Amino acid sequence: MLKLRDGIVELYKKVATSIPPDVEEAMKKALSSEENPEARESLSKIALTIQKSRQTPRPACIDTGIPTFKVKVPRGLSHTEITNTIREATAIATQKVPLGLSAVDILTGENSGDNTGLGFPVIYLSEAPDDTLTVDLMLRAGECENYGRTYSLPVEELNAGRNLDGVRKCALDCVKEAGGKGCPPYTIGVGIGGTRDQVAVLAAHQLFRKLSDESEYPVIKELEQRLLNEVNTLGIGPLGNGGNTTAIGVKIGINHRHPEAYLVEVGLSCWANRRGRLIW
């Protein structure tokens, strides 16, 4: 597992210091079409930050966030061993990259000093369909985690019923409430299902998707695009400075639900939607 550990350390370095190409391209596209002067200045600063982090290299954002892994493990490999390897790699990467110190003990308030602790980093494991081990890593900005919201439909004050239009209204409400506090342009992840824990995980997993990835369900694909268009009319703009670029992507995941429960989770990623993949 030493080679895997070292590979994950390098994955940390790549993700922390290099914004994904699709996100960078979306920022360039936004800059080319943005007319608001303050928004253009914000997007220009973001573009410069991306460039400098790649040249130095240094983390694209001082907050290297909450490491979140989604791992597909071939049958026969120990999930416990994979988890321990990720934790070892996290401790090494903290010093080597370096990463910000983000793991704080709930009981004592003390920082672990190596980004490991109870449930830290966050790791989701599932069985791979073949013999390939796939490790996806996302660094989730801690500030953005404060602005995601869970909704139980119907929501009377939003006039949001138990349907996809109700989901749309919830997503718009979440972004309006977040405003510029979570460092937009956002990537928005939405999870729909029957339990609170289920939709929270589902929404988080949507943030791993590339911006070009389209839902297999035509009605969801259409809703993703409609929401992106509507969010970008809210006037929040890059870093909250106005303009027509409040989000660069909306991704929606769905599960079946109970007849009495219609839960919606809306999660946000800041402009630095840092994610990457290791295939081993």
Describe this structure in words.
The chain has a domain at 143-273. Helix content is 39%, strand content 19%. It has helices at 2-17, 21-33, 37-55, 79-96, 142-145, 164-178, 196-206, 218-231; strands at 66-73, 122-127, 134-140, 149-152, 186-193, 247-254, 263-269, 274-279. The strands form 2 sheets. A 4-stranded mixed beta sheet has the order 2-1-3-8. It has a 4-stranded mixed beta sheet with strand order 4-7-5-6. β1 (66-73), α4 (79-96) and β2 (122-127) form a beta-alpha-beta unit. α6 (164-178) packs parallel to α8 (218-231). The chain starts with a helix and ends with a strand.
Rg computed from alpha carbons, rounded to a whole number of angstroms? 19 Å
Number of helices: 8
Structural class, by secondary structure, is alpha/beta
Mean pLDDT: 96
CA(first)-CA(last) distance: 11 Å
Strands of the widest sheet, in order across it, are 2-1-3-8
Assembly classification: single chain
Task: Indicate the low-confidence ranges by residue numbers.
Answer: none
Work out the helicity level: 25-40%
Quick rundown:
The protein is α/β, with parallel strands linked by helices and 280 residues long. It is built from eight helices and eight strands, in the order H-H-H-E-H-E-E-H-E-H-E-H-H-E-E-E. The protein is globular and about 50 Å long.
Ordered list of secondary-structure elements with their pairings:
Elements: H1 2-17, H2 21-33, H3 37-55, E1 66-73, H4 79-96, E2 122-127, E3 134-140, H5 142-145, E4 149-152, H6 164-178, E5 186-193, H7 196-206, H8 218-231, E6 247-254, E7 263-269, E8 274-279
